[in-house]
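>> Question from a student workshop board

For tomorrow's exercise we were told to take the sequence and the ligand below, predict the bound structure, and bring the output to class. My setup keeps failing. Could a helper post the expected result so I can at least see what it should look like? The ligand is LXAUTJHC.
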Amino acid sequence: MSKTLVVVVPDADTLAATVASRLVAKIVDAQAERGSAGVVLTGGRIAKRVLAALGSLPEAAAIDWSNVDLWWGDERFLPAGDPERNETQAREAVLDSLPLDPARVHAMPADDGTDAATAAALYAEELGPELPRFDVLMLGVGEDGHVASLFPGYPELALTEGTTSAVHDSPKPPPTRITLTLPAIQSADEVWLIAAGPDKTDSVGRAVNGDKALPAAHATGASKTYWLLDKAAAAKIA
Ligand SMILES: O=C1O[C@H](COP(=O)(O)O)[C@@H](O)[C@H](O)[C@H]1O
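>> Workshop helper replied:
Here is what the output should look like for this input. Compare the format with yours to find the bug.
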């Protein structure tokens, strides 16, 4: 039975440091158990701050970065190196300074002229027929309650089969995206929903209180779901 836990810290800086520190512990524990760790990254503002904080944590030296698989929960379908790509932002925040095995950094395809549906299918192939183990899957939470690129009322939210999907006409720019599906997200051992700031108060409150119209309310981990929040984002949790 999956457990849901809510952790609230005073502000966004403390949240970024707290999540980074928990991530180090999770990766170290996974490597102690299995030799490797699988982490799914998210995009967005708080994610960038978490990754930047990770880069300055002394305890991150305990991680064997060559035995970490990095995946993404979603991607803005833009050309390689575009500053708005989640991959570019993660690389700039920390990835480029870590001794990762490039073959284990599984970025979602960039827009190279191929259509997004083909790109999503390619990522599904990279994930494989059996999903890899995701020890932790991180998600930002949008003001509208979206997670990854699953938006309220969009058809991708209802997918019960397949691991990836293209998203068209996204309400948040850019309009074309690639996302993991809910079944892929829910396969993760732990799902961490991370949100900070007053613009997230309503969506976080509604999702934690169980409003299933919001994609965030469906993002649960196989063993644990953590809501990692600052005080402002947590203000409307009942
Ligand atoms: O566009 C996206 O936005 C969400 C939330 O971002 P935030 O800046 O409001 O924290 C993010 O989780 C998602 O990965 C990204 O593609």
